[in-house]
Please model this.
Amino acid sequence: MKSSFFKKIGKIILWTSLFGIVFLLSTFLTIFILIRGETYTVPDLRGKTEEEAIKILAKKELYLKKRREVFSIEYPEGTIVKQYPEPGEKIKKNHFVMVDISNGGEIVKVPNLIQKNLNAAKMELRQYSLDIKRISSIHYKFQAEDIIAQNPPAGAQTFKRSGVNVLISSGPRIPAYIMPDLIGKDINLVMNYFEKKGLKIENIREVEYEGIPSGTIVRQTPLSGYKIKRGNIIILDVVK
Model:
């Protein structure tokens, strides 16, 4: 009886010990996995120097790795331009955040664009890795879309991938006139007046009108008081 009782006690102690060992191993393994799999939100390192970024990452048990140097006009030389993973993404501790470091902007000389057509200027600027940034226009003696002025000026140094502001011509200003009252006027005198102003009478229609001398204007289009410019159609009815 005593032997059987001690055997049962021994089995209970053995199984209790085994369960205890399994529980401890399971708990240790769970903690180990949680620690190994701990993640952090990647901070925004753009604009920071390498030294600043290393300190920021160290607080999250992360490391910095420089991938390459790139030209940038947005970020000063020696600061971070891009990062992988990007800000806000999750990363496990003891992993690397790779970064691109600004090497500053690559310098080029601005070409002379004055009196060049806008489209031709755009093509030329592409050869310098530049582009048109802003376009303004005014009436000027140059042909429409020819460049009057530029900023930066020709020969100035600027960064690649930056822009050039230009002022273009919208063509010479076309003078405008107020259509005079031509009714009762002689057609020959009127034609001389219009030719001096650079205006063209598009159509002269001869009509019969009793009691009015030949060559007298009796109807006009546009009517007097209307604004007219070169190229407007002017029609006059004249007595035969």
Helices lie at 2-36, 50-58, 118-126, 187-196. The radius of gyration is 43 Å. The chain has three domains: 39-102, 107-169, 176-239.
